[in-house]
Amino acid sequence: MRVQQLLEHHGIAVNPFAEEDAQSDPVFKERCRDLTYHPAWDKVYGNPSDPATSIVFGEKGAGKTAMRMQMAGRMRKEHQLPTGTAIKDSIRKVAQGGGKTVANAVDGLKAIAAGEKVDYTGASGPCDFDDKGDIIDCKFRYDQIKAGKFTLVKIA
Q1: pLDDT tens digits along 10-57
Q2: Closest Cα to residue 96, out of 126, 131, 125, 124?
């Protein structure tokens, strides 16, 4: 029996295996995104009230895009977080804010909470964006650990 015959036999009109990427997969979006999770979901998603960093590596088809989409959806649902568009539209306000220079998210969030404008340089150093959101200039930040603390060497 061929795949199409098998699907038709079970009344399935659309091949659920046709798409290679969760982002363009209607079956994933309609039936799996909010109900079915990768076996490593709990390790990667963790506890949002006590956040930690995760890096996901995997070959094509391992579920990286699906997990990213599920995390974004879960965070929006549970915490009423802004959409990707809102984040994109706001990035220049902190990356080119013309305010207090901050190099990490904690200092930036404290400054924003105190009502200050910030110019977030971030882990990669300062990045400025044009009207379309493309990076105009990209610099690298070089730090060295001295006495257990990061010390700026140069930004070039």
Answers
A1: 888 877 767 667 777 777 777 777 778 778 778 888 877 777 777 777
A2: 126
Q: What is the pLDDT of residues 118-127, one digit of tens each?
A: 888 766 667 7
Structure tokens at 29: 């979006």
Q: How far is CA 27 from CA 3, 23, 24, 73, in A?
A: 17, 10, 9, 16
Q: How far apart are CA 55 and CA 101, in angstroms?
A: 27
What torsion do the CA atoms of 25, 26, 30, 35 make, to the nearest 10 degrees? Answer: -20
pTM: 0.39
89 is written with which tokens? 């539209």
Residue whose pair of structure tokens reads 């995760």 in the numeric block: 54
Report the distance separating Cα 52 and Cα 71, nearest Å. 14
